[in-house]
Design brief:
This protein has about 500 residues and is an alpha/beta fold. The protein is built from 15 helices and 17 strands.
Length: about 500
């Protein structure tokens, strides 16, 4: 309902104004005040759409009331029409404009002019309200983006340190396992430790992907392990009163996808499903199956369902039916965007009071492409080749040294990149391969690689990183680095990478 506040010390004037306004705008609520102080109070309490203010009043005139209204954060956006005496001077009109009045009307009031001015003020107020809302929304979006950037930076720092710690655990477990007979009682325990390390590495990668805005590089993946892992993470985050039913078929088919973003899609859909179930009770059902040339992922809930009035709008950015402050309206828009960028489609069915089901179809990739992309799982031994390794983390350097020695290589470990570079300057042909950490003091792995390649352009260089936003596979290739590996490193990955580089050099 439109609300107009009329401020005048004369009762007759207020009655006349109210009658005229209600005649031309029947659904308008006219609020009256007989003094400037009363008007200021009602302006704050009622937030009217327009204020009609008489200038000539005792105790506090209209000029001063207007000035106070325009200086108050709660009322400064409300249009003010000043009612002036018939002989108001240009000086008074200028004064009123200077303090923020939006229009003037001279007494006696012409009804048509009054209504024209009010309608103009209402249009101005509506337009300004829309602009203010858009500005507030943009500010909130910017704040959310800044928060996500901060979270991404924090996640990256944690990932770097965590992966260095994980490298030591994983490496020692593998080294011990390789020297142990399968009949040993501890053998299976160590295999469980390695499995846990693999899971921890995948989890860190998922968290990093969630904090990034850009689409990551897609690669051939089996989707079922990602869905299972994501559901494990989800189980810990939702009420135990919500039952998760999962039917995850294990099949050999692959899709071309970014694992982190597939996880992000599932977590978003599941989070929405949980929010739709009243009082934290219900069933969340996740199914994964393979039909012809598509892998089909579906998320079903027993929640309140989606109103048919809104179902065509749920994928619109910023559209949400949640209470203010409880939803951004970006979740489903982001889900649809990711699915489309993965050449898939997403569909929704819903019934009020019964629940909702989202179904995603993702295309399977050619078998020929898959076989070229999968690495065979075995460890390749070295032949006493000389490897230079550099890492400022002594524990990570120590475990990599032990792994390479067990693989049959001679190793020269360095904690300092500058010292390692000096050694290469003295003898450019001393090493067969260089393995360097990325994030180090004095000189990063990227800078070190550039300097080494100036001295010996033929030496294969591997950069390892727990997490670094300053290098990508594309960056590494441009500067001549042969491989970029993510920590923690398994003996399988490091042995195959080194062997492939040495074999290429021999050819």
């Amino acid at each position: 309902m439109i609300k107009i506040l009329a401020i005048d010390d004369k009762e007759d004037n207020l009655i006349t104004l109210s009658a005229v306004i209600n005649h031309f705008i029947p659904d308008c609520l006219v609020i009256t005040a007989k003094s400037g102080l009363e008007g200021l109070k009602k302006a704050e309490e009622e937030s009217p759409d327009t204020i009609i203010l008489d200038i000539r009043m005792p105790e506090m005139d209209g000029f001063y009331v207007c000035k106070l209204l325009k200086s108050n954060f709660k009322t400064k956006h409300i249009p003010v029409i000043l009612l002036t005496a018939a002989k108001t001077s240009p000086k008074d009109r200028i004064r009123g404009l200077d303090i923020g009045a939006d229009a003037f009307l001279a007494k006696p009031i012409d009804e048509s002019e009054l209504m024209a001015q009010i309608k103009v003020m209402l249009r101005i107020k509506k337009a300004e309200d829309i602009l203010r809302k858009e500005k507030n929304d943009m500010e909130k979006q910017l704040l959310r983006a800044q928060k996500m950037e901060s979270i991404g930076t924090l996640a990256g720092g944690i990932a770097h340190d965590f992966n260095n710690i994980l490298s030591v655990i994983w490496g020692n477990a593998e080294l011990t396992l390789n020297e142990m007979k399968e009949s040993n009682a501890v053998y299976e325990n160590l295999k469980d430790v390695i499995k846990a390390c693999v899971r921890a590495k995948d989890l860190i990668q998922q968290l990093l992907c969630l904090s990034r805005e850009k689409i990551q590089e897609r690669k051939p993946i089996r989707i079922s392990p990602i869905i299972k892992e994501s559901l494990k993470m989800l189980r810990a985050a939702i009420p135990s009163s919500i039952k998760i039913k999962q039917t995850i078929s294990d099949f050999p088919h692959m899709i071309l996808a970014d694992p982190g973003q597939i996880s992000q899609v599932l977590l978003n859909l599941c989070t929405n499903a949980v929010a739709a179930m009243p009082e934290g009770e219900g069933i969340l059902e996740v199914r994964l199956e393979n039909k012809e040339k598509y892998i089909i992922l579906s998320v079903k809930d027993t929640g309140t369902g989606i109103d048919p009035e809104y179902i065509d709008r749920i994928f619109e950015p910023y559209f949400t039916t949640k209470e203010h402050g409880k939803g951004t309206g970006l979740g489903l828009a982001m889900v649809q965007g990711i699915v489309q960028k993965h050449d898939g489609i997403i569909m929704v069915e819903s019934e009020l009071g019964k629940g909702t089901i989202f179904t995603i179809h993702l295309p399977v990739i050619d078998e020929g492409f898959i076989t070229e992309s999968i690495q065979t799982k075995f460890i390749l031994k070295g032949n006493n080749e000389h490897i230079l390794i550099i890492d400022d983390e002594s524990a990570a350097l120590h475990i990599l040294n032990k792994m390479l020695c067990q693989l049959g290589y001679r190793v020269s470990p360095y904690l300092d990149s500058v010292s390692a570079l000096s050694t290469i300057r003295e003898n450019p042909k001393l090493f067969d391969v260089v393995i360097t950490d990325m994030t180090m003091p004095n000189m990063t792995g990227k800078t070190l690689a550039k300097e080494i390649l100036k001295i010996n352009p033929d030496i294969p260089i591997i950069i390892c990183t727990g997490y670094s936003p300053w290098i990508s596979e594309e960056d590494a290739k441009k500067i001549g680095v042969k491989a970029l590996l993510m920590k923690p490193l398994s003996m399988e990955v490091i042995s195959q990478t080194i062997k492939s580089l040495i074999c290429k050099e021999e050819k």
